[in-house]
Amino acid sequence: MKFILSFTGIQNSLHKNIGTKIKMIVQEKKPQELLEDRIFTISNLLSISRVFLLPFFITFTKTYMASSEKTEFLVYAVLTCLLAVLTDYLDGFLARLLHQESVLGRYLDPICDKIVTIGGLLVIVHYFRFPLWILIAYIIREILGIWLGSFLYLKRGIQGKPNWWGKFGVGLVALTVLWYMCIPLIEFQIPGESILKHPEISGYILVLILCTGIFAYSKRYWDIVFHPEKIQIDPADKKTRKKYELV
């Protein structure tokens, strides 16, 4: 027997169901349904622009590493990284400000984040000796995140909600990349031993954040993925309805 995870009819009949918990039953979605919402919005274009900044970041870094005398290219690379961070903040802010929030945008933003963060980490692995095993752990975590987000949408009709651990992780990746990129400048400005010369610290903190985020997501979505028949919804509980928001 196939379960249907849906809130269809719930919102139209809240007055009949106040105080009554309703079993969550599964509504599958098709990928093309994502394109039924607004596509060409300022926030979506900002998200995509982050990906197009990545080749510039790689080129500037490669040029600097080929000739360390060309310090201006290191500055360009750092500024490109900062610009990517700025677009990450602005896309969500403008989506809310201009009322351009969409299901597609909520998926596009984290996907662009994943592409850019993995690309940034690859650069510092190749040029600045960032621990490869941390990059591998990060990629595995992102693959799991893509699988979970796709499964929740396509098989459960629910949009996975980002948690603060995930957002903090993206910010920490940006900080890590910037820290490693600035090491040549730090070594020039600060002689002798300094904690500023050990950017790998942020990498180890990143691993801790990744593990915590995986635990938080598992706790939140385990029953939805494996036991949707156990979930009960109280239509009067706004927090619960938001948590299991239908997309």
From TrEMBL:
How does this protein sit in the membrane? Multi-pass membrane protein
Q: What is its main location?
A: membrane
Q: Where in the cell is it found?
A: Membrane
What InterPro entries does the annotation carry? CDP-alcohol_PTase-I, CDP-OH_P_trans, CDP-OH_PTrfase_TM_dom, CDP_ALCOHOL_P_TRANSF_CS
KW ATP-binding (keyword) present? no
| Cellular component, GO annotation | membrane
List, in alphabetical order, the GO biological process terms annotated in this UniProt record. Answer: glycerophospholipid biosynthetic process
| UniProt keyword annotation of Membrane present | yes
Locate the transmembrane regions by residue number. 39-61, 73-90, 134-154, 166-186, 201-218
* Keywords tagged on the record: Lipid biosynthesis, Lipid metabolism, Membrane, Phospholipid biosynthesis, Phospholipid metabolism, Transferase, Transmembrane, Transmembrane helix
PROSITE patterns given for it?
Answer: CDP_ALCOHOL_P_TRANSF (PS00379)
What's an example of a GO molecular-function annotation for this chain?
Answer: phosphotransferase activity, for other substituted phosphate groups
Report the domain of life of the source organism: Bacteria
The record's comment on protein family reads:
Belongs to the CDP-alcohol phosphatidyltransferase class-I family.
Q: Which PANTHER family match?
A: CDP-DIACYLGLYCEROL--GLYCEROL-3-PHOSPHATE 3-PHOSPHATIDYLTRANSFERASE 1, CHLOROPLASTIC (PTHR14269:SF62), CDP-DIACYLGLYCEROL--GLYCEROL-3-PHOSPHATE 3-PHOSPHATIDYLTRANSFERASE-RELATED (PTHR14269)
- Please identify the protein, giving its name as recorded: Putative CDP-diacylglycerol--glycerol-3-phosphate 3-phosphatidyltransferase
- Which species does the entry assign this protein to? Leptospira borgpetersenii serovar Ballum
